[in-house]
Amino acid sequence: MIFEGKAHTYGRDVDTDVIIPARYLTTNDPDELAKHAMEDIDAEFVARVRPGDVIVAGENFGCGSSREHAPVAIRASGVAVVVAASFARIFYRNAINTGLPIVVCADAVTDAENGDVMRVDLSAGTVENVTKGKTYRSEAFPPFMQELIDRGGLLEYVKSRVGGEGA
User: Fold this and answer.
1) What is the pTM of this model?
2) Which one is predicted more confidently, 137 or 145?
């Protein structure tokens, strides 16, 4: 799986309350959540983000509450992948479960700036800053995790394994 898009950069400790503010947790509708993604840390994010874009952030991305709404909002906003120096453990799991690819690559984060074109290859375990002509190593996604992402998350993966929609 290869993703390419513009970087939206953030610092460390981006918590789930700024990824999707609690006032919007009255819905589980991904499209509605997407309208408010990142608005408490970046009011212009929703206007700027385009399908395929990449969030690039510092350490401990997704800290705070364990809400699954956060990765759902990011994915529904059009973000293809999040690259961070590290992720909060519960966010990491929720992201995979909801079908949002995430990559740990501190070196790529250090060099990235807003608007840089980033290319992320999950299978090869590389993050490339196309704008700066630099490539960084990350851990490749194991095949079973790639399949989870390909299927749209854990629920869709399980449905595909047990026989479809009626499962």
Assistant:
1) 0.91
2) 137
